[in-house]
Design brief:
By secondary structure, the protein is mostly beta strands. It is built from 3 helices and 23 strands. The protein has one domain: Beta-galactosidase, Chain A, domain 5 (Distorted Sandwich), CATH 2.70.98.10. It has a 9-stranded antiparallel sheet, with no helix packed on it. The radius of gyration is 18 Å and the shape is globular. The termini are far apart. The mean pLDDT is about 95.
Length: about 300
């Protein structure tokens, strides 16, 4: 399989490998190295070669992550779709089903600029219809360059409107999540999923205090946070995204995850971009919707 992919997608700086049971796409271009698995189309690594984050991965993956293909890899950028969080129907997987399906690699391209483009697709079939009875074509376009760009496009193939919630569930590597200040969420509608307190308007910057599971609705602008320990500011630009989610399980919550060590919460922070809860997207028949996230790092 690896040889066949290498022949089909003969692009400079792109190679293929297996990690346990998962196919990996590895990129090495003038701007960065990256790793993507076809299992869930999850990006597992993005290491810039220049600037504030040179040689330092923006993305966090658990040292205890499992690569057996039976569940999503813990970390990276899992795709939550077509629902975020728990399903309204009992017995269905949290965060949808596409993060645990094998996606098809459709395109690999290296531009003259040196930027690498990867296109992965996922189509509805009998298995997806058993979980969610709607027709769709889903694509994820990843561009590895000076910045990391991810664009998730949903094509509604039905003769009726389709409602979805979605998120790019990004796990960031941080030196210490405690006390990190997140800018750009001011004025949004805050829902605390741990306390289930009434919704309030976010006042000022968000200060991370694990455990934390906060949803910020009606928020479409740039989000950023300083990681003093790694001497960088992470910048998250988004398009067609009205929600952000901040999550860290903390010292007690992390114990519920068999694929995370007890101290894993001390080196990761999820800041997710999407459209969740009341920000659900209604896609007209035969129409498309694209959620875009662009990540970069700046020096402090």
């Amino acid at each position: 399989m690896i040889d066949a992919l290498a022949q089909q997608f003969d692009a400079e700086g792109v190679s293929f490998s297996m990690q346990d049971h998962l196919m990996m796409i590895e990129i090495d271009n003038p701007f960065a190295t990256a790793k993507i698995t076809t299992h869930g189309a999850s990006l597992l690594s993005y290491v810039p070669k220049q600037g504030a984050s040179a040689g330092k991965d923006l993305i966090w993956v658990s040292e205890s992550a499992v690569y057996d293909g039976k569940k999503p890899v813990r970390g990276g950028v899992p795709i939550c779709w077509p629902w975020f969080g728990k399903s309204d129907e009992e017995g269905l997987p949290a965060h949808g089903f596409v993060r645990n399906r094998v996606w098809h690699l459709e395109k690999v391209h290296t531009y003259e600029s040196g930027v690498t483009e990867i296109l992965l697709v996922c189509d509805s079939d009998a298995d997806s219809h058993a979980l969610w009875p709607h027709a769709f074509h889903l694509s994820l376009r990843i561009e590895i360059g000076e910045k990391l760009s991810m664009a998730l496009t949903t094509h509604n193939l039905n003769c009726y409107d389709l409602s979805i919630t979605e998120a790019l569930h990004t796990y960031f590597t941080v030196a210490n999540p405690q006390g990190i200040k997140i800018e750009g969420l001011e004025g949004s509608t805050l829902l605390d999923k741990l306390t289930y307190a009434d919704a309030v308007q976010q006042q000022g910057v968000v200060v991370v205090e694990p455990p934390m599971d906060n949803v910020y609705l009606n928020q479409s602008g740039k989000v950023s946070f300083e990681d003093v320990g790694l001497n960088r500011r992470i910048v998250i630009e988004k398009d067609s995204s009205l929600s952000s989610v901040v999550w860290n399980p903390g010292p007690e919550g992390v114990k519920a995850f068999g694929d995370m060590s007890d101290d894993a919460w001390q080196t990761m922070l999820c800041v997710e971009s999407g459209n969740v809860l009341d920000n659900a997207v209604l896609i007209p028949s035969e129409s498309k919707h694209t959620l875009t996230m662009i990540l970069s790092a700046e020096s402090l």
